[in-house]
Prior knowledge:
The protein is mainly beta. The protein has a single domain (5-133), classed as glutathione-dependent formaldehyde- activating enzyme (gfa). The chain is built from two helices and eleven strands, in the order βββαβββββαβββ. It has helices at residues 32-38, 91-94; strands spanning 5-9, 16-20, 25-29, 43-49, 54-56, 59-65, 71-77, 83-88, 96-100, 114-116, 132-133. The strands form two sheets. The protein has an eight-stranded mixed beta sheet. A three-stranded antiparallel beta sheet has the order 1-2-5, with no helix packed on it. A hairpin with a 5-residue loop joins strand 7 and strand 8. Bound molecules: zinc ion (2 copies). One zinc ion (ZN) binds next to helix 1.
Amino acid sequence: MNNSTRQGGCLCGQVRYTVPAKPIETVVCHCRNCQKQAGSAFSVVAFFQRDTLQLTGELQTFEDRGTSGQKVFRRFCGNCGSPVITDTEDAPAMGLIFVKAGTLDEVDDLQPSLHCWVSSKQCWLTLADDQVQLQQQESL
Ligand SMILES: [Zn+2]
Ligand SMILES: [Zn+2]
């Protein structure tokens, strides 16, 4: 990481990307689909301006649907299976792209500002009181 950009990639390294150092927003999504896709309790998603993402390597896409019926394109490395990018039907119009933040090379400074889908949060997990918690929202 330098001052202006940071890098990330999938587990096997076939997919690599560069994004701005500072995400617009970092969100923790506790929706069941993220739990399934990540094989974990939640996913951490960093928002970036769409045109700032530079990606090399090949991603495969699983077309999922959010609760609103909006298509959610879950993009992952076909070799190692790491979920890398989430895209939605609305994202191009918003100028945003969503990166699975666990794939960033450096994650120590990430500061999630928001938790969504707290309604399906796993019950063993306690969230800090000072973080915004939405019961639902679009799945990422
Ligand atoms: Zn990979
Ligand atoms: Zn989700």
